[in-house]
Structures are given as structure tokens and as C-alpha cells.
Amino acid sequence: MNGAANSKLQMGAIGEKVPILRDSSDSRTVIELKAKTETSFSRLYANYASMLLGVILKVVSSREVAEDILQETFIKIWKSIDQYDPDKGRLFTWMACLARNSAIDYLRGKNFAKSSKNDDIESVFTQVNNSYYFRYNTDVIGIKELIGTLPDSQKQILNLVYFQGYTQVEVSDKLHIPLGTVKSKIRLAVKELRCYFL
């Protein structure tokens, strides 16, 4: 390995710092892998993990599942490095095919079929709840302007109750009118405003 390749270090698969193989040939990497040394595997992982993860993520959308498939792919590479034939293509191409095929196998498997049929109840509940729940912003829909069309007594009571936070009892005390009258005027005002929204 030349000095330029040794100058950069990256975390390997087993947590040790290993040199990144940028300038080395596939044949040297394959020879080291066939020797089954931990350093060669760490170097392989450091050099190719992110690229193989990208290949897997093009097939499988879940990053968590893709990372599991990546681990399985490296185990397959480790176990089947003797099957690699340099005459048929580059090492990365062979590993990318293993990664892609592992991802496709996952999608065809029983676990994926079961998980895709069973949605998470929380996400479904949130989706349904959001589709049927409406929150009106009174500034946007013009409630204050619509209240302006009501008689002054109704307008004053609605303003106190809905915009200033008074209770019906407090409005009754503040305006010196019976509580029943406050309730009646609110009910009539709401009934009149409802016709604008139905």
C-alpha cells in the first residue's frame, strides 16, 4: 500500500482504525479477504459500507432494514469470497450484486409481506384523525367580521365569551343581565353564524 492510501484512517467493522483503500487493486483486497483476517474485513467495511448501503436503499425504503441487510451482505461476502471471479467483473460490482439481491430477497420474503400488511395502529389513527379533524383559525375565516353583522347585544356577549375568555356567569355579572338571557343570546348568535358555514 502506498503512503497516500495509508494517510487516511476510518473506523472499521470491529471498531479499530484502518487505512482506507483508495489506490489498492481488487486482487490485493481479495487476497487479503481470502486470508480471513479481521483487518482485511474492517478495511473492506470501511471502504464499501456506505456505497453498498446506497445500493440497498434504492431497493428497500427503510434505513433500519437496509442496515440489517447490509450486515447480512457483509457476512455473505466474508463467507463466499472464494466464489468471486475477477475475470467476470470488479469486486465492487460483485458485492453490489450481492447487496441488491439480498435486498430483493428481503422484499420477496415472508417477513416483508407480513409487515407490509400490518400497519402501525398509531400511524393509522393519526392519519384518520388528521383527515377528519378541522381546526379553524378565526383570523383567516373572518369570524370577527361575521360577528360584526350581529346585533350589538349579541356581538358584545360573543366578544366577551369567545375572544376575551369570560364565562357566561362573568358576562351576566359584567353586563347586569340574567344568565338565561346571556345563554339565549349566545345560542341565537351561534345559530345565525352557523348558516355561513353550512
From TrEMBL:
InterPro entries xrefs: RNA_pol_sigma-70-like, RNA_pol_sigma-70_dom, RNA_pol_sigma70_r2, RNA_pol_sigma70_r4, RNA_pol_sigma_r2, RNA_pol_sigma_r3/r4-like, WH-like_DNA-bd_sf
One Gene Ontology MF term: sigma factor activity
Domain RNA polymerase sigma-70 region positions: 44-110, 147-194
Pfam families for the chain: Sigma70_r2, Sigma70_r4
Keyword annotations: DNA-binding, Sigma factor, Transcription, Transcription regulation
Keyword Transcription regulation: yes
GO biological process entries: DNA-templated transcription initiation
Highest taxon listed in the record's lineage: Bacteria
Similarity section: Belongs to the sigma-70 factor family. ECF subfamily.
Protein name (Swiss-Prot/TrEMBL): RNA polymerase sigma-70 factor (ECF subfamily)
